[in-house]
């Protein structure tokens, strides 16, 4: 049976609550071995009597699904090379198993179960697991809302709950609004948690993931949470960065370019003064991105490393998966420069094919099956689908989102495809009305 995983979850039901199949099985305490001596031969009873008489030891299905989730999805929550950039000594994966079972936050445990069930349902194409995941999701959401209403201390547990709920939405979106609220809510919770909760850099890693998703949500839905916190405040305050990692500085520039991009697209009339202001900001951002790229190349050169190279078979290879991701975002900034330059009456001559660079990175990361990298590649691929000059590139980027609908990222893919198709329809309407020549 084939299931489309971009569909909405049903609301909370009054049906039977699905609970863990069994409690943790315990082996019967070891019995003293019975030694029967017959000359030099010793016979030892090897098995407890209960096993010999047919007792079956049951294994928790819920725990098994959680382990699959840890092993195949969260194991790649941090891409190779990222730890050097964010200074974390222990990944979120290392902390999550203990956090979810320490008894301090039931919502986190439910959110983990919901996300693990959704992931397992995607892997096995099992509709009953998807129903189970949805029921658990609504319970986790109710518990999480209660924790926030009671104004308890915000801990890494609370932040992790919001992140897991956003991962659930990334796989099986209920609404675009729900995904956006979980992402922005998690960022706000990190700010409220304070520096004491940033254990071994875990919250740094989580926030960097969240921030790339905030950029994607803003680009595709054109809605920025009015209550969203300043990223600089979190990075410098809560997470105690005196000098921000290059990737985070780049994301800041891309967010500002996106703001110009959306404002110009939404307001074609009476924008002369605004365009002059945007032109000044555009030139400033372009200069800073150029300088950032030089810094990035120089840092690799100082270590005797290459960021990327062409292999004998003609395929581009990268230093590591995190480097590939960074290069895709530098290419995204270049794409935005090229899109904005004619609108702002400024020349932008760049003969490199940044759209193809993004597609090459997506192909490279696909071979590693890195879940978080797929999520973070959503923004670059969206820009290719919308603005690549070659039709085959636009089609390829769109088809990647179509494939992702069936491989665990149905929610994010649905958001991207909805925006792509909506904007294409809008352009066709403008052409039909004679507004575009």
Jot down its keywords.
437 residues; mainly alpha; two-stranded antiparallel ribbon; two-stranded antiparallel sheet; 18 helices
The number of domains is 2
Note the main sheet.
2 strands, antiparallel
Structural class: mainly alpha
How are the strands of the biggest sheet laid out side by side?
1-2
Report mean pLDDT, rounded to a whole number. Answer: 77
Q: Give start-end ranges of low-pLDDT stretches.
A: 1-7, 13-59
- Strand count: 4
What oligomerization state is this entry in?
Answer: single chain
What form results from the Cα inertia axes?
Answer: globular
What fraction, in percent, of the residue positions are helical?
55-70%
Count of DSSP H/I helices:
18
**N-C termini distance:** 47 Å
Q: What's the gyration radius in Å?
A: 25 Å
Q: What is the helix/strand order?
A: EEHHHHHHHHHHHHEEHHHHHH
Instruction: Tell me the strand percentage band.
Output: under 5%
């Amino acid at each position: 049976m084939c299931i489309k995983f971009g569909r909405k979850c049903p609301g909370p039901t009054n049906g039977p609550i699905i609970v863990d199949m069994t409690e943790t099985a315990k082996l019967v305490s070891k019995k003293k071995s019975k030694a029967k001596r017959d000359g030099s031969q010793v016979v030892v009873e090897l098995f407890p009597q209960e096993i010999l008489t047919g007792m079956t030891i049951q294994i928790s299905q819920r725990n098994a699904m959680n382990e699959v989730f840890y092993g195949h999805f969260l194991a790649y929550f941090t891409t190779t090379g990222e730890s050097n950039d964010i200074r974390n000594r222990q990944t979120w994966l290392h902390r999550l198993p203990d956090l979810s079972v320490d008894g301090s936050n039931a919502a986190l445990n439910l959110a983990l179960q919901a996300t693990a069930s959704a992931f397992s349902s995607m892997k096995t194409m099992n509709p009953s697991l998807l129903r189970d995941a949805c029921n658990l999701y609504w319970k986790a959401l109710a518990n999480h809302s209660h924790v926030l209403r009671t104004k308890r201390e915000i801990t890494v547990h609370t932040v992790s709950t919001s992140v897991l709920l956003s991962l659930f939405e990334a796989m099986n979106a209920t609404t675009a609004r729900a995904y956006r609220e979980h992402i922005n809510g998690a960022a706000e919770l990190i700010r409220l948690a304070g520096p004491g909760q940033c254990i071994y850099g875990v919250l740094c890693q989580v926030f960097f993931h969240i921030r790339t998703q905030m950029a994607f949500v803003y680009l595709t839905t054109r809605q920025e949470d009015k209550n969203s916190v300043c990223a600089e405040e979190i990075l410098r305050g809560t997470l105690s960065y005196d000098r921000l990692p290059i990737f985070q500085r780049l994301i800041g520039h891309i967010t500002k370019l996106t703001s110009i991009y959306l404002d110009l697209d939404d307001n074609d009339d009476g924008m002369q003064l605004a365009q002059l202001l945007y032109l000044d900001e555009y030139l400033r951002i372009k200069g800073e991105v150029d300088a950032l790229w030089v810094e990035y190349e120089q840092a690799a050169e100082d270590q005797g490393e290459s960021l990327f190279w062409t292999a004998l078979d003609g395929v581009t290879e990268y230093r590591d998966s995190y480097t590939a991701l960074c290069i895709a975002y530098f290419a995204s900034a270049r794409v935005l420069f090229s899109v904005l330059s004619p609108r702002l009456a400024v020349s932008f001559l760049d003969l490199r094919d940044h759209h193809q660079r993004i597609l090459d990175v997506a192909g490279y990361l696909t071979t590693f099956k890195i879940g978080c990298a797929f999520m973070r590649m959503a923004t670059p691929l969206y820009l290719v689908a919308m603005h690549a000059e070659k039709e085959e590139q636009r089609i390829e980027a769109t088809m990647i989102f179509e494939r992702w609908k069936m491989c665990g990222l149905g929610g994010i893919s649905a958001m991207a495809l909805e925006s792509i198709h909506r904007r294409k329809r809008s352009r066709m309407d403008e052409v039909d009305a004679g507004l575009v020549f």
